[in-house]
Amino acid sequence: MIDKLEYLLALSRERHFGRAAEACGVTQPTLSAGLKQLEATLGALLVQRGSRFVGLTPEGVRVLDWARRIVSDTRAMRQEIVALKRGLTGHLRIAAIPTALGMVSTLTTPFRTRHPDVTFKISSCTSIAILAQLENLEIDAGITYLDNEPVGRVRQIPLYYERYQLLTTPDSPLGDRAEVTWAEVASVPLCLLTPDMQNRRIIDRLLRAAGTEPAPTLESNSMILLFSHVRTGRWSSIMPAKLAQTLGLTNTVRAIPIVGPDTAHAVGLVVPSREPMTSLTAALVAEARRAANELADSPDERENLRALQ
Amino acid sequence: MIDKLEYLLALSRERHFGRAAEACGVTQPTLSAGLKQLEATLGALLVQRGSRFVGLTPEGVRVLDWARRIVSDTRAMRQEIVALKRGLTGHLRIAAIPTALGMVSTLTTPFRTRHPDVTFKISSCTSIAILAQLENLEIDAGITYLDNEPVGRVRQIPLYYERYQLLTTPDSPLGDRAEVTWAEVASVPLCLLTPDMQNRRIIDRLLRAAGTEPAPTLESNSMILLFSHVRTGRWSSIMPAKLAQTLGLTNTVRAIPIVGPDTAHAVGLVVPSREPMTSLTAALVAEARRAANELADSPDERENLRALQ
DNA sequence: GCGCTCGATAGAGGTTTTCAATCGAGAGAT
DNA sequence: ATCTCTCGATTGAAAACCTCTATCGAGCGC
Prior knowledge:
The structure is a homodimer of 309-residue chains.
Chain A: H1 2-14, H2 17-24, H3 28-42, E1 47-48, E2 55-56, H4 58-86, E3 90-96, H5 105-114, E4 118-124, H6 127-135, E5 141-145, E6 154-162, E7 164-168, E8 180-181, H7 182-185, E9 190-193, H8 198-209, E10 218-220, H9 223-231, E11 236-240, H10 241-247, E12 254-259, E13 265-272, H11 279-295, H12 299-308
Parallel strand pairs in A: 3-4, 3-5, 8-12, 9-10, 9-11
Antiparallel strand pairs in A: 1-2, 5-13, 6-13, 7-11, 7-12
Helix pairs in contact in A: 1-2, 1-3, 1-4, 2-3, 5-11
The structure holds a DNA duplex (30 and 30 nucleotides).
């Protein structure tokens, strides 16, 4: 039964019988038969039949919802029993927004010291995708903005507030400043993330609040690419302080704090709000709580973050 | 997998392989093998082995906890899909404390009018047993005192406050009174419930609060038996008003309100606090909310009850 | 030590599951 | 219109699994 529910999860994710079967490690006829059997035992069509995959029926959508619960509980149970025997083992799949990638190591490094048998897979994607993947059990945790429209039921552990810095070369127009305003930032040629990234949308909002229209002359979805363009001296960019810190300041690149309307966006760990949590998830949450104390720029900020939980 | 989890549930309930197997509708070797397979897939012993059933291992207890979740979610899923097709159908198992049996019909009657395809099984048992059975998925809902030590996670819907009346014959010492005090009640020969019933323990407390020691000359676990003894004219008894109302006042039996310290005990519906609820449970909760309005003795009381949720 | 209860084990029989191979319907291209 | 390609359903054989009856063996009480 549970394996059949996994078939349904895979199908709704892949939207293709063959790929779903492959993802489950069975052949396509097996998956087809499994779903047909699930439909028989529940007494309702779950998959809209056609020459190709069309979608799930309303009943299918409801079953999908239950399947997520049941499958994730089953996995959590398995994991907990393994953890009871051999200590914390297993695999944590984490997705993070690109601007948070730099600080992931402050989470993973102490975690591995504490639990050496846990392996990680960390992927970079948009805040929207993180919530979608959490919902579909494709990742175990995400690191993203906490002021998102709540898409699914998630538990959030605040980590730090994102503050922005202008990345530029010392010999460019603003290169010698100790701090700059958002209005000033808009006056230099900028390279920024693409607008599908929430970070870019936040920066756009901040620039508009300063009365200017964002007009980057180069867009990319890779922070590394932006950074390398800044190094040429022909572009400047805007980056969260935590990330600029990680990339390291060479003698050709300066990071200048941007002052002005301080609409700080909190970044934190998000995990499925299932009670009780997976033992791995629980350990990660504990680690995040510890990391939050280290990452906070001031005791004040620490207090504010704690209030967000 | 799920059927194996059901085996574990049955075993922990019956504490006997043969009876557990019977409860699951399989033979004892099948249940034994199923549990052994569950142990193999989880990689841990779940049942303490001995010549007879000893108990579950710590791992077994943890798995049992998950099994309850997974099995109940699976049942809820099945039910919801059936409900989507054929409207609300199925079976509701309710347990109630004896003193609440009289008012169950104010819940079930309108429920059946609304959902004619739902059948009921209503059993009478102690408040402790109700919570235990709820925990073990043996009943779907209970009707009991709401001031219990919370044994499991339950959601409670208040129905009414229990108030006590003296049941007696018109020609007995207190038979002509409009109301009596707890101290007066203690002066007549009483027949009461046995002390394993919470109702009796409450009455004992009330009698002691009035400075008297409860000394019933007859005890039983059946309200009907108590009532029939009252009718002989040789005993009086103490009953919740709601129940006295249901049993009906013949011309040989009077119900006299007992005044004094008003430590009202709220009675209500309790259901497993699983999110989302079974469709049947959700419908029952809705019915209980409606019934609470009807049962309340005053608007004041209605307000107090609402606050308990 | 005898008998009884309980749970484990063995082996047969039947069902279910799985897979490779193939079919057939529909979409898109020519 | 027809060809072709993709996708999901179907088929049939082999393997795996599950469930049963029958029986065993350990421990408990007498």
